[in-house]
């Protein structure tokens, strides 16, 4: 599997998880209703399957690497959807997380 395909799977997983959590948030905290919550639950379930398409057989490694994608993706989601403006420390932290993703997933191993 190419790095590009693997990264695409991580992005798809992030959209499903972050989007699902956002839908639940909107349904409950913003009182938009049970259909929003149901949509969020479905999206969160989809997230669980997307990770299974990564080539590495180790669940812990995939989930650990995805954590870095989740951090950066959450900030990006907030910027686009909620007009959140991260400060430089948010961006530095997200960058560190993405370096961690690269090390965990894509450094050659024996």
UniProtKB/TrEMBL annotation:
GO terms for cellular component: plasma membrane. The keyword Transmembrane helix applies. It is a multi-pass membrane protein. This is UPF0060 membrane protein. Pfam families: UPF0060. It is found in: Cell membrane. It comes from the Bacteria. The keyword Membrane applies. Belongs to the UPF0060 family. Keywords: Cell membrane, Membrane, Transmembrane, Transmembrane helix. The chain crosses the membrane at residues 33-50, 62-79, 91-108. InterPro entries: EmrE-like, UPF0060. Its main location: membrane. It comes from Actinocatenispora comari.
């Amino acid at each position: 599997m190419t790095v590009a395909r693997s990264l695409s799977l991580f992005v798809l997983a992030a959209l499903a998880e972050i989007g699902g959590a956002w839908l639940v948030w909107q349904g409950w905290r913003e009182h938009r209703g049970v259909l929003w919550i149901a949509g969020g639950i479905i999206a969160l379930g989809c997230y669980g399957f997307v990770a299974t398409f990564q080539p590495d057989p180790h669940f812990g490694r995939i989930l650990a690497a995805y954590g870095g994608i989740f951090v950066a993706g959450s900030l990006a989601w907030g910027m686009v959807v909620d007009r959140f403006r991260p400060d430089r420390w948010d961006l530095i932290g997200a960058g560190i997380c993405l370096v961690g993703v690269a090390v965990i997933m894509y450094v050659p191993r024996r």
